[in-house]
Every structure is written in C-alpha cells, then in structure tokens.
Amino acid sequence: MVSKASPSFPSPAPTSKDLPESNTQDLGPYADYTTPNTIVLISQPPNQTCAVVGGIMAARMKNLGARAIIVDGRVRDLVALADTEMPIWSRGTSVIGAGAETKFHAREVAVRIGETVVQPGDIVMVDELERGVVVVPWGMVEEVLRLLPEMVASDERVLGEVVRGGSVKEAFKRHRNA
C-alpha cells in the first residue's frame, strides 16, 4: 500500500524510499488477487489513520482461500472480520476506509512487517493460541527442520526438571548449553 491524496486527506504522508516499484497499475482491489492457501501480509505506510482491511476485503480474501491476514497497519469492521473465522491481526483499528488515504501498490514483493522483512516464498506460520507469527526464510527451511527436534526435546527436558523443583538456571545449563 502507498499513500494517496483525497479530499479528506489532501496531504498524504511521504512515500518511503525503500518502496518497491509498483506492479499493480490498474489491477483494481488487492483482495481479488489473493492466492489460495496463503497468509496475506499487508504493509501500510506509517502515520496513516485509515484502515487497509475491512469486512469486504477480508470476505473476498477468505473466499479466495486466504488462511490468515497479517496487517502492519490498521483494520476496521471488527465484527465482520471475526465472522470470517480466520486469524486477522493488525497493529490497530480505524473507522476510516482505505480509499480515503491509501492505494494498492505492489504484490508478490518483499514486505516489512515491523522489523521483519518477508520475501515471497518465505514460510509464514500463524499460532492462534499464542497470538504469534513466525517467518522462516525459504532458504533456511532445511536448517530449521534440522534444528527443531533437538530444540523441542531440550525444552521438554528443562520443563521436566523445573516441574520437579529444579532451578531454571541449572536446567538451562544442563540442557540448553547456555
């Protein structure tokens, strides 16, 4: 998304110098381009007050097969978003629609979500119970899969000791090499 001028917001926020080149000229609403079985990541320009996802866009993305929506920005229509029954997380909310202040700029490009840059093809996992998102760069998937079993086993050994009354410090020392 990028800032745009409108009668309600005649002085848009400046465009970031890190912005990728637009590849969406005249494509229409971004929700229509949702790829099935993906997690949709949306980056909104800072300092905007509008929402970039509302009930209509979320319903369309769900219909096209989105599994979750992560917004580095604002959403609106919270009841309608909840009705989609998929994870939709954002930094904030607004009652102002996206058309007032922002427009679709690029798709299938690197997206910055907070301090994390997500490249097309990276693995994104949403943990609804923990309310967290993990991104594994595509080039590191094999390494993560190799390391994960021992990390989980190590934590299980630490937890076992702590539950039996042991100290966290000593359990970490024995099982995490820390």
Task: Please describe what this structure looks like.
The protein has 178 residues and is of the alpha/beta class. The chain is built from four helices and nine strands. Strands 2-3-4 form a three-stranded parallel sheet. It has a two-stranded antiparallel sheet with strand order 1-5. The model has no long low-confidence stretch (mean pLDDT 88).
Number of domains: 2
Got a strand count? 9
Shape: elongated
Helical percentage: 25-40%
Taken as a percent bin, the fraction of beta residues is 15-25%
Assign the CATH topology of the largest domain. Answer: Glucose Oxidase, domain 1
Task: Tell me the name of the CATH class of the largest domain.
Answer: Alpha Beta
Please give the structural blueprint.
Layout: E1 2-3, E2 39-43, H1 55-63, E3 68-75, H2 78-83, E4 88-93, E5 102-103, E6 111-113, E7 116-118, E8 123-127, E9 132-136, H3 141-163, H4 168-175
Parallel strand pairs: 2-3, 3-4
Antiparallel strand pairs: 1-5, 6-7, 8-9
Q: Can I get a quick summary?
A:
With 178 residues, this protein is α/β, with parallel strands linked by helices.
What attributes characterize this protein structure?
single chain; 178 residues; alpha/beta; Glucose Oxidase, domain 1; 2 domains; three-stranded parallel β-sheet; two-stranded antiparallel ribbon; 4 helices; 9 strands; 26% helix
